[in-house]
Amino acid sequence: MAEYHVENFGCRASRSDGEAIAATLRLRGLEPAANMAGADVFILNTCSVTEEADRSARAFLRRIRRENPAARVVVTGCYAQRSAAEVAALAGVDAVVGNSHKAFVAETALGLLSNADMAGFVPLQRLTAAIQVDESFAHSELAALPFAADARQTRPNLKAQDGCDNRCSFCIIPTTRGPGRSVGLEQCVEDTRRFVKAGGRELVLSGINLGRWGRDLQPPHRFEDLVAALLEQCGLPRLRLSSVEPMDWTAGLLELFREYAAGEHPRLARHAHLPLQSGSDAILRRMHRRYRPWHYAERLAQIREIMPQAAIGADVMVGFPGETDELFAESYRFIEAQPFTYLHLFPFSARPGTLAWELHREKPVPAMAVKERMAALRGLMERKSLTFRKGFAGQRLSAVTLQPDEGRDGTPALTDNFLKVMLDDEMAANALIHVEVTAVTEAGLRGVAEAVPVS
Questions:
Q1: Cα–Cα distance list, 298 to 188, 294, 333, 336, 339 (Å)
Q2: pLDDT tens across 276-306, in order?
Q3: DSSP-assigned letters across all residues of 282-318
């Protein structure tokens, strides 16, 4: 029986795609490979938000060629969509399938394994890899990638939305993912009910621009309509939202948190992730972001008022073209004043085809300055994160158990407010439990679970 390996790069929405591809391959009779040497076909589900993401995909491809040169390789995802010819020219790539044709990745892999006719693919001159990419996304159908809830997996992603209609000056996503598109409400409800029936405990709702879900549907829907439906119609024990843009935290969405993020086992996880990018007003304007720092601060204050113990995170970019020491200091002070409990920090990476590509040529930020600013923000967040964790010493929190870490005793668990806890007990994954926090360390929390899971 043929074996496969799916390697996912990038965001939660991308991982959701990879999970769906893997589920489709299993349905078609393939088995997941125990190791790289045993895989007959590899799916590289790439990211291309930064140059580092592209490099990571190329490095993994070289590893495949070293460890398993006979395997077939399909490259999909954002790198494949953005630069299909470049990817097709890489040694060892058999097929390139852009996000526009992601529903056909499993079919492509099976065709390679059976040496089937590659009809329908458009080969490029002087390249051996077959290519399926459509810049108009005319063949893109979100629902064609089935929601995958593997019994071995905890906290799977339900991708309800793809693409983005914003035009942030630094971002390549509208090119690699296409315009905003939503999975219908009924399909999301059906998938969630199936997840609950299979014994699922926590579901992560994800998308590229998740808060804009429903605006393209007929009739249009609001994002809070989807959140309410999943909580009210599906019997879902816990729903967690992935990244939602600041201005999409509407009064209606906040009211749902007021209602469902309370109690001993909050059904709506006390966790908010709002992309920030910069705390400098001048930089936000150059980025073409649709809010000002004071707008953002107002949203965080509203969230913190409703959920005093919530985890609050953000994406922050360092070194955007023209970011002077003074503008970075403005951003630093803003971040320091906000109730963040974690940050996703990353340096600016110029992407061809974006407005910031030209800005970078005109006003690049020196690499050493970027490194120093990253270190400063990293130190700030380490202190803020530790302070947040210390506030839960001796407290009782709701958590879901995760798959055990290889080579470690005990059971990892994740609290509803996004704190990793290592339990002394050996427990099965995917149990909704209460945890008493017994210790706070630099690495995280330790705790003891109730003897009997709640559900």
A1: 31, 6, 16, 15, 12
A2: 999 999 999 999 999 999 999 999 999 999 9
A3: HHHHHHT-S--HHHHHHHHHHHHHH-TT-EEEEEEEE
pLDDT value at position 149? Answer: 64
Does the pTM surpass 0.85? The reply is yes
Instruction: Domain of residue 417: give its range.
Output: 396-449
Q: What is the CA radius of gyration of the chain?
A: 22
Domain end: 390, 419, 437, which one?
390
Q: If residue 134 lies in a helix (H) or strand (E), which one and from where to where?
A: none
Sign of CA dihedral 12, 141, 6, 85: negative
Q: In this structure, what token pair is assigned to residue 312? A: 């609050």
Q: Note whether 167 and 223 are same-domain residues.
A: yes
**Residue 255 resides in a domain:** yes
From 283, 161, 302, select the one nearest 221 (Cα to Cα): 161
Residues 80, 39 within the same domain: yes
Closest C-alpha among 381, 378, 326 to residue 347: 378
In whole angstroms, give the CA distance from residue 178 to residue 169: 16
Residue 454: inside a domain: no
Instruction: Please name the amino acid found at residue 427.
Output: M
Residue 350 to residue 251: CA distance in whole angstroms: 36
What's the CA gap between 317 and 327, in Å, rounded? 13
The whole-angstrom separation of Cα 447 and Cα 149 is 28
CA pair distance 94, 109, nearest whole angstrom:
9
